[in-house]
Amino acid sequence: MATKGVVKGIVSNLVTVEVEGPVSQNEICYITVAGTKLMSEVIKVIGKNAYVQVFESTRGMRVGDKAEFVGTMLEVTLGPGMLSKNYDGLQHDLDKMEGVFLQRGSYTDALDRDKKWDFKPLAKVGDQVSAGDWIGQVDENHQPHKIMVPFVMTDNYTIKSVAAAGQYKVDDTMAIVTDKEGKDHKITMVQHWPVKRAITCYREKPRPFKLLETGVRTLDTLNPIVEGGTGFIPGPFGTGKTVLQHAISKQAEADIVIIAACGERANEVVEIFAEFPELIDPHTGRKLMERTIIIANTSNMPVASREASVYTAMTIAEYYRSMGLRVLLMADSTSRWAQALREMSNRLEELPGPDAFPMDLSAIIANFYARAGYVYLNNGSTGSVTFIGTVSPAGGNLKEPVTENTKKVARCFYALEQDRADRKRYPAVNPIDSYSKYIEYPEFEEYISNHISPQWTEMINDIKTRLQRGKEISEQINILGDDGVPVAYHVIFWKAELIDFVILQQDAFDDIDCNTPLERQEFMLLEVMKILNAEFEFEGFLEVIEYFKKLINIFKQMNYSEFKSDDFNKFYDELQKLVAERIKK
User: Which ranges form a coiled coil (predicted)?
Assistant: First the structure.
């Protein structure tokens, strides 16, 4: 029998309910306000009092209102039909809702219960199966969507029967399995899973090592991220976080893309809704939205549901990973999620940490990022969840708690810089402050050596050293003037500028330059390295400036030309002639 309770106190979205029976942490309850049931989650229990965070506006709620606990935690509904959907933070289908504004207490089903799917069995009668094992598959927007043994069924089962190939609804019985006691269990296409618990139905979770190709040169070349890796993009307003996220979402070598808009401004979320359905997937030639799920939670939605939205997105990502797919999860912005944690912590009158964030903020962020990863499934297949979050530090302060705590756990750090954005050097990723710790992994170095070049890591370290040296000389030139430093210093500075203009800068709105395959990145990097290692003859700094501007111009024309096309080869020949003119004999 469901536990009931009565509202005893209200502090904005934090409501104290006196309960008449057992309740558990993270359990869902519904509080009835003027005939409307509002969804809430238990976040603390002390004696007879349960403290719940309400995922809706509490306007009109009174002491004495009734509450009913449902006996389950905050869950997502998992099954075919999630791709191309627009959900809110609680996985309610926004497209099924009516009107311009979301109505309080209006909840919709995450799946289409009436649609029929073409089912193909993968398992047979007599097979031994456990949680996460594949029973069959349906085609979901040209993706193989596996029908799995529910994740809660962790024991070993024997398949008693499997549905024949044909068309079925999501609630139809796809298989019947028998447990050790001889009891039968029906399996449908639908299952439920609590969002705060990681899905761990896999055999092994090794350290990730396979390069995730994004087509963004400053990421792939200088600070690569891997399949199943973690990264974050901090940066002040206007430095291009959203454009960079769109580029990665569109171009990365991923099967499924999940966008979690967590507490972002409504106009930015509207941009996602407007632009994503129009984007063409460069891998398939079809609409990118076919393999995308958007979870929208804007800044004017209740704060409590911001926290739920990131967990909802991660759980859906883990579900698709269990099918052996590569999932890319983008969260924008985890700062808003942390602010929601801070708000609820303050209302609970907990001891505050730095900047009034919860004391356990670092543990919460670490636990969440740890759910990403590269896994070997029980059947030997591999799947991955790559997580890239953005952080919006107030005033661009990268020393604030959210950025600092995220730096401890995320392996890639892509610092967007206001100065680079002001100089229109996009992507505005600072090449010196940013880093990728995957370069240090021997597994990654072995993978890069086998798939690209044994000298790749050495070249990258050389490039980073030259960029640092170029920055130091730039400061000297600013102080002493062009005449105050030797010509050799100007050459070092302009070689660093060559790296910046040719490798780091990229036009996200050009059809060719927006996406650079790894083969092309390697070719251009080797050409740049030849010039970096060459010795040139100059009489004065003006000759250096004029010469390197010509080099940069030709390289940029190559970046805008189809790889190895007639135009590309023409500019390449021009480049070789120009280099031969000045090279020291």
Answer: none
Q: Tell me which H or E stretch contains 343.
A: helix 334-347
Question: Which residue, among 436, 433, 417, 434, has the nearest Cα to 425 in the 3D structure?
Answer: 417
**3-state secondary structure string, 209-246?**
CCECCCCCHHHHHHCCCECCCEEEEECCCCCCHHHHHH
Query: Given this model, what pLDDT does residue 372 score?
Result: 97
Is 237 marked as a binding-site residue? Answer: yes
Centre a 10 Å sphere on the Cβ of residue 376 and count the other Cβ atoms it contains: 15
CA distances from 475 to 175, 181, 493 (A): 69, 76, 10
Cβ proximity of 448 and 456 under 8 Å: yes
| 118-149 per-position pLDDT tens digit | 999 999 999 999 999 999 999 999 899 999 99
Q: Is 105 assigned to a binding site?
A: no
Q: Is 242 annotated as a binding residue?
A: yes
What is the pLDDT at residue 266?
A: 67
**Tokens 């690569």 belong to residue:** 224
- Residue 16 among known ligand-binding residues: no
- Is 236 annotated as belonging to a binding site? yes
Determine the Cα–Cα distance for residues 466 and 394; give it in Å rounded to an integer.
Answer: 31
Helices 401-409/334-347 angle, 10° precision: 120
**DSSP output for 500-539:** IIIII---TTSTTTT---HHHHHHHHHHHHHHHH--B--S
Can you read off the two tokens belonging to residue 21? 């029976």
Name the residue type at position 564: K
Residue 485 sits at φ, ψ, to 5 deg, of: -125, 155
Q: Identify the CA nearest to 318 among candidates 97, 151, 185.
A: 151
Rounded distance, CA 163 to CA 175, Å? 6
DSSP 8-class letter at 370: T
Is 9 known as a binding-site position?
no
Residues of the chain with pLDDT below 50 are: none
235 is an annotated ligand-binding site residue: yes
The alpha helices in 388-441, defined as continuous H runs, are 401-409, 418-422
Cβ neighbours for 153, distance < 8 A, ≥ 6 positions apart:
130, 131, 177, 185
The 10s digit of each residue's pLDDT in 81-130 is 999 999 988 898 988 888 767 788 888 999 999 999 999 999 999 999 99
- DSSP label at residue 392: -
Please choose, from the candidates 384, 47, 77, 401, the residue with its C-alpha nearest in 3D space to the C-alpha of residue 234: 401
Q: How high is the pLDDT of residue 95? A: 87
pLDDT at position 272 is: 77
Contacts of 535 (CB under 8 A, 6+ apart): 583, 584
Asked whether the CA dihedral 282, 286, 288, 290 is positive or negative, the reply is negative
Beta strand 14-19 pairing with 4-11:
antiparallel
| CB environment 390-410: b (16+ within 10 A), e (fewer) | bbbbeebebebbbbebbbebb
The predicted structure's pLDDT at residue 306? 80
How far, in Å, CA of 275 to CA of 282, rounded?
15
**Is residue 571 annotated as involved in ligand binding?**
no
Helix (H) or strand (E) holding 258: strand 256-264
